[in-house]
Amino acid sequence: MHLYCLYLFSRKYALLITGYFSGKIFYHAMIELSNDDVLQVRIALLLQILDIIFLGGSLFVFRAREWPPLFSIGMNDMRTARDNERNRLSSLATF
To answer: What predicted TM-score, i.e. pTM, was given to this entire model?
Structure first.
């Protein structure tokens, strides 16, 4: 099961990377050869928007499947951790 999930992640990520770099190749190979400045700016803006979409897609592909323990800490747990740290430091100071 774990290898199958890795396979799916790698397929999705490969698709995202292919889309990202194909836009860059198109821009640097074809559009920069054009003499039309307005077209260059419009395509550059479109590519920046697509870059954000590809970044969001890659963040979605590699999102956490379970919440890390950091997000489940309540206020009482934080107070207990702070008190434990104080106790540890005070016990170190007595030596």
So the answer is: 0.54
Q: The domain containing residue 52 runs over which residues? A: 2-93
* 31 within 8 A of 47, measured Cβ to Cβ: no
Work out the average pLDDT over 53-76: 70
Cα separations in angstroms, 62 against 9, 11, 12, 13, 77: 8, 12, 10, 9, 29
Q: How many domains does one find in the chain?
A: 1
DSSP assignments along 79-93, one per residue: HHHHHHHHHHHHHHH
Instruction: Say whether pLDDT at 61 is over 80.
Output: no
Does the pLDDT at position 67 exceed 80?
no
